[in-house]
UniProtKB/TrEMBL annotation:
Record protein name field: SigE family RNA polymerase sigma factor
Keyword Aminoacyl-tRNA synthetase on entry: no
Coiled coil location: none
Organism: Micromonospora fulviviridis
Domain called RNA polymerase sigma-70 region: residue spans: 35-101
Domain RNA polymerase sigma factor 70 region 4 type stretches: 123-175
Length: 189
């Protein structure tokens, strides 16, 4: 009675050695699947020892085998196709390490910019602006922060210039009243 079993991952298919795939004839190309099954695990372990990360090593070896498969008609005729796949995997690991080192170096050169929080005057002004009606607030912000003229604000808002002047006058008066009360100084006493 003959018992056959499926080859396990990392084991060579029956009839091949783990070190080197069998070459029937120098002119004949070797089988990609056989090479893959025979060497994926050992190459992954080598790269895992080098990288320190098993999943990264698996990705690198997989990428190397993908590149070999894309060039299989040429790679299969090499004396040692496994050496080619190994070299590609190691080159990929080195390239990835260089990219990571460059990225980390760039991050270390970046300086954190510490911006001081808003001062008490800014907080008081923001709170006072929030209390204004929308039209007055918009007119004050556009005039004093965006440096738009009364004519430009009137065109943008689609209202007469007199309306914008009225909004600005009322907005300034309301801000003055709120800011003097907020700061504890009331000049109307």
């Amino acid at each position: 009675m003959t018992v056959t079993r499926e080859p396990r991952l990392g084991e060579p298919p029956p009839g091949r050695t783990a070190d080197r795939p069998e070459r029937p004839d120098r002119g004949e190309a070797i089988d990609f699947d056989g090479l893959y099954h025979a060497h994926f695990r050992s190459l992954t372990l080598q790269l895992a020892a080098y990288c320190g990360d098993l999943s990264q090593a698996q990705d690198l070896v997989q990428e190397a085998f993908c590149r070999a498969f894309a060039r299989w008609s040429r790679v299969s005729r090499y004396d040692d196709p496994v050496a080619w796949v190994r070299r590609v995997a190691w080159n990929l690991a080195t390239s990835r390490w260089r990219r990571l080192r460059t990225a980390q170096s760039w991050l270390h050169r970046q300086r954190e910019e510490h911006v001081p929080g808003p001062g008490p005057d800014r907080v008081a002004l923001t709170a006072a602006l929030a209390q204004l009606p929308t039209a007055q607030r918009r007119a004050v912000v556009l005039h004093y922060l965006a440096d738009l003229s009364v004519v430009q604000i009137a065109e943008q808002e689609g209202v007469p210039e007199g309306t914008v002047k009225s909004w600005l006058h009322r907005g300034r008066a309301a801000l003055a009243a709120q800011l003097t009360t907020t700061n504890g100084v009331n000049h109307h006493d």
